[in-house]
Amino acid sequence: QVQLVESGGGLVQPGGSLRLSCAASGSMFSINVMGWYRQAPGKQRELVATITTGGSTNYADSVKGRFAISRDNAKNTVYLQMNTLKPEDTAVYYCYAEGTVVTDDFDSWGQGTQVTVSS
């Protein structure tokens, strides 16, 4: 089993920045893809950004040019740098990871961290 623990959420004014972190822990695992999803009140969970082991990234159109995902493979940690935040970025942000534990596939979610963009 792989556990994901997020940190870095909070309250920020429009135009501000936040950095989210997510660390994976467990034993005998290998992660292929890590990423971030978000869910606003009354809406479905949506993709924000993903990154592969090799560094290939994918972003939702709504965050392109404002958010940057990065990853430290040695630490099994993924980061999301969020700049020029807007009120519509307010949501619970969830870390995601998929890979293998020994020879079995897995996918895991973090507990979520609240990001609120408001003046």
Shape: elongated
Through-space gap between termini: 40 Å
Low-confidence stretches: none
Mean pLDDT: 96
Protein structure class:
mainly beta
Helix content: under 10%
Instruction: State which percent range the strand residues make up.
Output: over 45%
Radius of gyration: 14 Å
Order of helices and strands: EEEEEEEEEEE
Structural overview:
This protein has about 120 residues and is mainly β. The chain has no helices and eleven strands. The strands form two sheets. Strands 2, 4, 5, 6, 9, 10 and 11 form a seven-stranded mixed β-sheet that branches. A hairpin with a 4-residue loop joins strand 5 and strand 6. The N and C termini lie far apart (about 40 Å). The mean pLDDT is about 95.
Please name the defining characteristics of this protein.
11 strands, 60% strand, four-stranded antiparallel β-sheet, 119 residues, seven-stranded mixed β-sheet, mainly beta, single chain
How would you concisely characterize the structure shown here?
The protein has 119 residues and is an all-beta fold. The protein contains no helices and eleven strands.
